[in-house]
Structures are given as C-alpha cells and as structure tokens.
Write a structure and sequence with these properties.
mainly beta, 4-stranded mixed β-sheet, 4-stranded antiparallel β-sheet, about 5% helix
Length: about 110
C-alpha cells in the first residue's frame, strides 16, 4: 500500500506554514488539492492508496508569504515550488516535507 503525506515549515518565521495551498498531480492529471492546517500539514489530502507512478506536489509559496505580510518583489523569486517525485510499487508511505522561505527551499523523503 502506498500512502502520501506532507508538512510545510516556514523557515523565515520559524513556524509551520498554516494556510498554504497545494496541489497534487499524478499520471492522469490533478489528483487533489488542499490547504495546510495550523500545524503545516494537510491531513486527508489523499483519501486512499496511490498507485505507482510519477507525481508532483505544487506549493503556492508566494501567495502564502504575501498573506503573512511579507513584501515580495514582482515577480517573486519563488512563486510556486513544485516537487516532482516517484512512487514505486509497494513503496509504502511517502512523506514529502517542504522547508521554505521567500528565497530558498529544501525537501526530502521523510518518514
């Protein structure tokens, strides 16, 4: 069974990124979309098992930071951050965290 979760941390302010919009796309297009909760997570993003394949999580970074009152250049350095990843057959749980500021981000496969 393959499952997916994500967690977004606002490294500029040192807190979870609550209220960030994200979209998950897969082999057949958009799978789902959601908004992070006060803990920076999006529980229930994926209601069930994901088949093996190539996926992408797209995070609306500039919109989030503007909502936080951060003055960004036009255009912003980071508008949307897209994390492309693959889910293998029988890969188990995939956790894709995003640590982000207006000018940098990092990600990895978490647990």
């Amino acid at each position: 069974m393959n499952s997916l979760s994500t967690h977004v941390l606002d490294t500029m302010h040192g807190r979870p990124a609550a209220g960030m919009t994200l979209v998950l796309t897969g082999p057949q297009g958009e799978v789902t979309r959601g908004t992070t909760n006060p803990d920076g997570r999006c529980p229930g993003l994926i209601p069930g098992e994901l088949p093996a394949g190539r996926y992408a999580l797209r995070f609306a970074v500039a919109a989030y930071f503007r909502e936080q009152g951060v003055a960004l250049p036009d255009p912003p350095f980071l508008d949307e951050v897209t994390v492309d990843f693959g889910i293998a057959e029988g890969g188990g749980h995939y956790h894709v965290p995003l640590l982000v500021s207006p000018f940098a981000y990092s990600t990895y496969r978490g647990s």
